[in-house]
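Section: Multi-chain targets

For targets with more than one molecule, the full set of components is provided together so that the structure can be written out for the assembly as a whole rather than chain by chain. Components appear in the order listed by the source. The example entry contains two components.
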Amino acid sequence: QVQLVQSGAEVKQPGASVKVSCRASGYTFTDYRIDWVRQAPGQRRVWLGWILPNSGEAYYVQPFQGRVTMTRDTSSNTAYMELSRLTSDDTAVYYCARDFMGSYAHWGQGTLLTVSP
Amino acid sequence: DVVMTQSPLSLPVTLGQPASISCRSSQSLVHSDGGTYLNWFQQRPGQSPRRLIYEVSNRDSGVPDRFGGSGSGTDFTLKISRVEAEDLGIYFCMQGTHWPYTFGQGTKLEIK
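Its structure, encoded as tokens over all components, is:
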């Protein structure tokens, strides 16, 4: 069955960077786009962008451009999302999700990032 | 960006009774390919979101038939015909027609 397994919770200081992984199994990794979504406490979910595992092409939503980098390793079927220059506003649960036809049938379990001095 | 507005944000329900959640978009969700990419998800505490409905009204495999989606254009509804205890949680809509994808605020379904 399709599974997306994310890395564990992180605690970072302001100004630091974080790299979250998302390991896919149960399907051909390069056949589907991987999107990243986050939900900060009390806020609605926000789309960060996506990566195409076959080519490595990535698209980032404007508020995160310059701070987010999405990469992938096809040898391990893993997608990565790195966010730099962290502030307390980046405290959130980060999810990867497999996109198909404008929808997410499969999500990772979420990675809690806490940014605190 | 397309703004997705859900109502109500809190929905106290009596078990066995129906429930309905509205999701409205700031612009039409009809894609140039003719599809309407409006999704509904359920999220229980401590769990990842689970997709219930895609393309307005298509129920995912394993989703009970008491869940139904309807609507068109900018106005969409998720209905639960008879709420069961396992249905409690957060429900949110998401549009996948326009970039960036955007989400509703979420509706908390709770026992009255």
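The interface with chain B takes residues 35, 37, 44-47, 49, 59, 61, 95, 99, 101-105, 107-110 of chain A (CB under 8 Å).
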